[in-house]
Amino acid sequence: MKAFTISAAVALLAAFAQAAPAPVEIDARGSYVTLKFEGATPSAYYTRTVPVNERTFTIDDPLSVSHIKSSGGATCTIYGKDGSVTTVSGTQEVDVGPPQTQVSGVCKAS
Q: What CA–CA distances, in Å, run from 21 to 43, 71, 74, 89, 108?
């Protein structure tokens, strides 16, 4: 009976782990999500791990960004140098239009 109970508990935990949304990183400082900012070519990109706390963060990379991808678990709104406003929710890849340098953003839990 004890072995059955342990097996059932392990199976239940595995089911919950598979059903969970993409992870938001959590450490002593709080929750974070990773964003990938892509330029016009596959080799032109950078990533940032940003807080999921509804506070504005700055982005200091001059790359003209065409697409933004998220690791999931948050909704992020990213602001461009020339006025673009791009919202990425969950594990989406979203086009930036027109492509431009990104300067700031804010993320909240999904």
A: 28, 10, 10, 12, 15
